[in-house]
Specification:
There is one protein chain. The chain is α+β, with helices and mostly antiparallel strands and about 60 residues long. It has one domain. The protein is about 25% helix and about 35% strand. The chain contains one helix and three strands. Strands 1-2-3 form a three-stranded antiparallel beta sheet. A hairpin with a 2-residue loop joins strand 1 and strand 2. The longest helix has 17 residues. It starts with 12 loop residues before the first strand and ends with a helix.
Length: about 60
């Protein structure tokens, strides 16, 4: 299934280097989608609702 950028209609590319920050803390790069035209980046839902949600809960508990 191809994802299309809503800004310019280009097909999104799968990438493995999306930078993530949480409260000024740099987290490891993640897999997601990036538009080759405008550079807009998206994280996949399962990553956000799973791994990142768990990491956020752990960081907030400290």
């Amino acid at each position: 299934m191809a994802y299309i950028c809503g800004r310019d209609g280009a097909e999104m590319e799968e990438v493995y280097d999306i930078g993530i920050k949480y409260n000024e803390m740099e987290l490891p790069e993640a897999e997601g989608l990036r538009c080759p035209e405008c550079g807009m980046e998206f994280l996949m839902e399962d990553l956000v609702t799973g791994e990142l949600n768990d990491a956020e809960a752990m960081l907030e508990a400290k």
